[in-house]
Design goal:
two-stranded antiparallel ribbon; globular; 292 residues; mainly alpha
Length: 292
């Protein structure tokens, strides 16, 4: 049975249940992790962050499953999680995140905006960081690209849908520490590069892998704060001063340099996946012609 709701209706309908259920699951996660959710200054360990994110993801999956089944009336699996022929997309997402953060770190070092401080190798913390950012990338991509962007594209031009979903993605980080207009712009721009591949492939593996890679190399490897959050990092760095060049306490996502790199890699992403769509469309036309 076809859903009676238009795509943008579904997006509006899911917002309140998503916020409420995700918040409830987060509080349960905090209780299980032994943290005090009434204390805003409580310092969470990586173990606690992983537990809380696991419950958050469970809440996200539950809400999206419910809406896919009873509102969208479509299988949850069709949200874009098929792994068939997606190995290259995953590799490309991981590579893009690595290159962007390596360039960012290297350029800021050469400019004297940051300085290398120390190598802090802790295998357990490193492994926990991998798990943490996998959970983060799945949680945010399932909702923002897999549900919001997917449904918006059913109601409007795909590029308008991409812009709206990216603005919403930027707004999601409104309560992060040290949030500002420039960080909102950078995160919105990152939402565009994350969503570009999805509008052509309807598959989440490139945005999931890029999202993970971006966060992991930014924070865990090169020592930037991730969206204002300071956690374990392998390479410890010192900012010579807080400014818009190095991003200050918000991290690389608050820097002007990140804008330049994102613009370049957004153009590359568009070229790669637009070309794939054109090639696929031409093959389908050729197959249809051969059948006739």
């Amino acid at each position: 049975m076809k859903s009676q709701f238009k795509g943008w209706h579904r997006v509006l309908l899911i917002i309140l249940p998503y916020v409420m259920i995700m918040g409830l699951f987060q509080m349960v996660g905090m209780v299980v992790a032994g943290s005090d959710f009434t204390d805003r200054n409580f310092n969470f360990s990586l173990w606690q962050d992983v537990i809380i994110l696991f419950f958050t993801l469970a809440g996200t999956v539950l809400v999206i499953w419910f809406f896919r089944k009873f509102i969208d009336k479509e299988p949850f699996a069709e949200i874009g999680l098929s792994l068939k022929n997606r190995g290259k997309d995953i590799a490309l997402g991981l590579l893009f995140g690595l290159i962007i953060m390596t360039l960012g770190y290297g350029i800021l070092i050469m400019m004297g905006e940051i300085k290398f401080s120390n190598i802090n190798f802790q295998p357990t913390e490193l492994a926990l960081s991998v798990v943490l950012f996998i959970l983060v990338s799945f949680n945010e991509e399932l909702f923002m690209r897999g549900y919001v962007l997917k449904n918006l594209m059913l109601s409007m031009n795909k590029y308008i849908a991409l812009l709206i979903s990216s603005l919403a993605f930027g707004a999601m980080h409104l309560l992060n520490p040290h949030f500002s207009l420039i960080t909102f712009f950078v995160i919105t721009l990152s939402g565009i590069i994350l969503g570009l591949a999805y509008i052509y492939t309807k598959n989440l593996w490139f945005p999931i892998s890029l999202h993970f890679s971006w966060n992991f190399f930014q924070g865990t490897i090169f020592g930037f704060n991730v969206s204002g959050q300071d956690d374990y990092s392998l390479i410890e760095q010192i900012r010579t001063q807080d400014n818009l060049i190095n991003g200050g306490p918000f991290g690389f996502e608050g820097s002007l340099l990140s804008i330049g790199l994102l613009v370049i890699f957004t153009a590359i992403t568009w070229k790669v996946f637009y070309k794939k769509e054109v090639v696929l469309a031409s093959r389908e036309v050729s197959d249809l012609t051969n059948i006739q």
